[in-house]
Design goal:
about 325 residues; Helix Hairpins; Heat Shock Protein 90; 3 domains; about 10% strand; elongated
C-alpha cells in the first residue's frame, strides 16, 4: 500500500514536470524519468511507511483511551501506576514540608534562646562588675587601708573568676550549637573510666556504678560526650547525698540515674532552658549559671541524640541520652 502510494506520487511528479517544461518526451528523457521513479520510489515508500505507522499508533492509543473511558476503566487499569507515582510525589512533598517547618521552628527557638541568653548574661554580669568598679574607685581614692588590702584583693579575684567562669559557659553554650563533624567509634566503658570518672568526686555514702558492657561501642564526638556525662554526673553528685549514681547503656542509649532528691514536676520542663537554675534564689555560690543542661542537650542533638528527663523514674532522677531514629 505504501509502495503504491509512493509510485503514484513519483508518477504525478514526472507528469507535472513534463507539463511545466512543455518539451516533447524522447527516449532519453523517458529513461531519465524512469530512473528517477526507481530511485525515489523506495525512499518515498519508506517515508510513507514510517509516517503512517507513527500516526496509526497514535490513533490506536487514542481509541484505546476512548474505549477505556466508555467502559469506566480509566482509573482502574492503565493509570494505576501513574496514581501510585503521584501519591509518592505527594508524600515526599509533605515530608519535605514537615522538615522545613521543623527547621524553621528550630531556628526560631534558637534565636529566642540566644536573646534570653544575652538578657540573662547582662543581668548576671552586672553585680560583679559593680563590685569591681566600686573597689577600683576606692583604690583610686586611697580609701582602702593596708590592713584591708588582702580582703579587697580577694574579693576582686573572686568576682573576676566569676566573670571568667560565666563567659566560659556562654562561649561553651554558643559553641554547642555548632554541628559536629569529627565523630568516632570507641568503647564506651573504657572511655568513661579513663576520661569521665577522674573528673567526678563522689562522697563516701554515695556509690558510683557503671553497669556497661566492656564491648559496647558508641559513635560520638569524644569531647562532646565527655562534656555531657561530666555535667550529668556532676549534677547527680550535687543532689545525691545517699544511695547510688548509676550509668546504664545499650547500643541506642545511655542512662544516668541517681537516688537523689529529684526534680519537682513544675521545674522539669524548664531545666534545659539557658540560665535556668533549680535554685531560684540565684545564689552565685551554689546554683551556677543554668547553662550546663542546655549545653548538654545541644551537644547531644548535634551528634544525632536527644537528651531528656525520664518522668517515669521515681526515687531520684534519670537522664536519658537516646539515639534519634530518622524516618526515611
Amino acid at each position: 500500500m505504501y509502495g503504491l502510494a509512493g509510485f503514484l506520487i513519483a508518477l504525478f511528479t514526472a507528469i507535472m514536470t513534463y507539463l511545466i517544461i512543455d518539451v516533447p518526451i524522447g527516449m532519453t528523457m523517458l529513461s531519465e524519468i524512469g530512473l528517477t521513479i526507481l530511485v525515489t520510489l523506495p525512499l518515498i515508500g519508506l517515508f510513507s511507511y514510517f509516517m503512517g505507522n507513527y500516526f496509526s499508533k497514535k490513533f490506536e492509543a487514542i481509541n484505546q483511551c476512548l474505549d477505556a473511558i466508555s467502559e469506566n476503566r480509566f482509573l482502574e487499569e492503565n493509570y494505576t501506576d501513574k496514581i501510585v507515582d503521584i501519591n509518592h510525589i505527594h508524600t515526599s512533598i509533605k515530608q519535605l514540608s514537615t522538615r522545613l517547618e521543623h527547621s524553621i521552628l528550630e531556628l526560631k527557638n534558637r534565636n529566642k534562646n540566644l536573646n534570653n541568653l544575652i538578657l540573662s548574661l547582662s543581668h548576671d554580669i552586672k553585680t560583679p562588675l559593680t563590685i569591681i568598679d566600686g573597689y577600683l574607685e576606692e583604690f583610686e581614692d586611697n580609701m582602702v587601708g593596708e590592713e584591708d588590702m588582702p580582703r579587697a584583693i580577694g574579693i576582686l579575684k573572686k568576682e573576676t573568676a566569676y566573670i571568667n567562669e560565666l563567659s566560659s559557659d556562654v562561649i561553651g553554650y554558643i559553641e554547642s550549637q555548632e554541628l559536629v563533624e569529627s565523630k568516632e567509634t570507641f568503647l564506651l566503658k573504657a572511655f568513661i573510666h579513663a576520661d569521665v570518672c577522674p573528673l567526678i568526686r563522689v562522697e563516701k555514702p554515695v556509690e558510683l556504678k557503671c553497669l556497661i558492657s566492656d564491648t559496647l561501642q558508641i559513635e560520638f564526638n569524644r569531647m562532646a560526650l565527655k562534656k555531657i556525662l561530666v555535667n550529668l554526673l556532676h549534677n547527680a553528685t550535687k543532689y545525691t547525698k545517699n544511695g547510688t549514681i548509676t550509668l546504664i547503656a545499650d547500643k541506642n542509649s545511655i542512662n544516668v540515674q541517681d537516688t537523689g532528691i529529684g526534680i519537682v514536676k513544675k521545674d522539669r520542663e524548664r531545666i534545659f532552658e539557658p540560665f535556668v537554675a533549680l535554685d531560684e534564689s540565684r545564689n552565685r555560690e551554689k546554683s551556677g549559671f543554668g547553662l550546663g543542661l542546655s549545653i548538654a542537650r545541644n551537644l547531644a542533638e548535634n551528634n544525632g541524640y536527644e537528651l531528656f528527663l525520664d518522668d517515669s523514674y521515681e526515687g531520684g532522677c534519670r537522664f536519658v541520652l537516646k539515639k534519634i531514629e530518622f524516618i526515611q
